[in-house]
């Protein structure tokens, strides 16, 4: 149960990193990655995955 970032679409803007309530997102090379062990799909925090909501590139933060 986690989200993932499609690396080929990620611009590395870092918007998602600071919005994640579980600090599950970090930089890896030029793009960002989600640690599936930390990601809860925002359950208990938001109705929808925050990373997907704030990401300016549609379809980049998706269910793994
Ligand atoms: S779905 Fe929520 S918990 Fe998971 S990486 Fe995105 S912002 Fe973080
Ligand atoms: S908000 Fe989207 S484009 Fe920006 S770093 Fe996160 S996944 Fe990449």
TrEMBL record:
Record's keyword terms, sorted: Iron, Iron-sulfur, Metal-binding
Domain called 4Fe-4S ferredoxin-type: residue spans: 1-30
Gene3D superfamilies per record: 3.30.70.20
UniProt feature coiled coil, ranges: none
The organism's place on the tree of life at top rank: Bacteria
Pfam family, one: Fer4_10
Transmembrane segment boundaries: none
Listed PROSITE patterns: 4FE4S_FER_1 (PS00198), 4FE4S_FER_2 (PS51379)
Protein name, as recorded: 4Fe-4S dicluster domain-containing protein
